[in-house]
From TrEMBL:
The chain crosses the membrane at residues 57-78, 84-105. Keywords: Membrane, Transmembrane, Transmembrane helix. Residues 225-240 have a biased composition (Basic residues). This is Uncharacterized protein. Residues 203-224 have a biased composition (Basic and acidic residues). Residues 203-240 are annotated as: Disordered.
Amino acid sequence: MANETELEKIDRAAEYFERYFEFEDAVTVSMENKEYLKTYIHDNDYVVKNFNIKNKIIKSLGISIGIGLAAFLLLWLLLGTKLIIVGIIAGALIFIGAGVFGIALNKYRLTAAEQKQVEVNEGINEQIIMLDDRIKQVERQRDDYYKALEKRVPFMSLDYMKNVQQIKQFLVDGKADTCEEAVDMFEESMLLQQMTDIMTKSETIEPVKDDKERFGDPLKIIKENKKKRKKEKKAKKDKK
């Protein structure tokens, strides 16, 4: 197993990465909240369509007819057939009055619903503006933190942040003595997997006579890449 210092180094890097992912999650959650809030913003046509004033007016007129008919029957029973015309006129006036009142009431309710939606839209737009500012702020913090990570974790590419536990396992298993070696082994395993996937895919498309001729020797490529990376690291150290 690798010495404690190397394990501490990889664990510290994992903590740094976890903090970076917290920034990522904060941005994602804020953007999801923004999209969710947008579902509550509606134009006036939407309010009118959902209020369905025509159906409400028809119901009001139906109620008015019922009230007018009930008034006519009551007066007919009280005054008798001699004053039936008075009952008809009274019932008609009650029907008209109730109908006008019902129509006016529904128009008032529609206007109130439209005004309420305007207020809701304004409130949501204010929240969206605040979220946009919050997203920009967190994105700046995330990007600044990413730049700092490049200096804090010089032994590996930040493209492998999500694979830090796999890299650590090479240290835990004793296959690597340093974080740099663990990263090299991870890259080698990743390259081998890629080559295997390519060759497997090619076999399903057409017969392959000699994979090494077409793709080269994977082990040889890995060794060459490893030497190349070591030269690059040495060159960087010499520049310093």
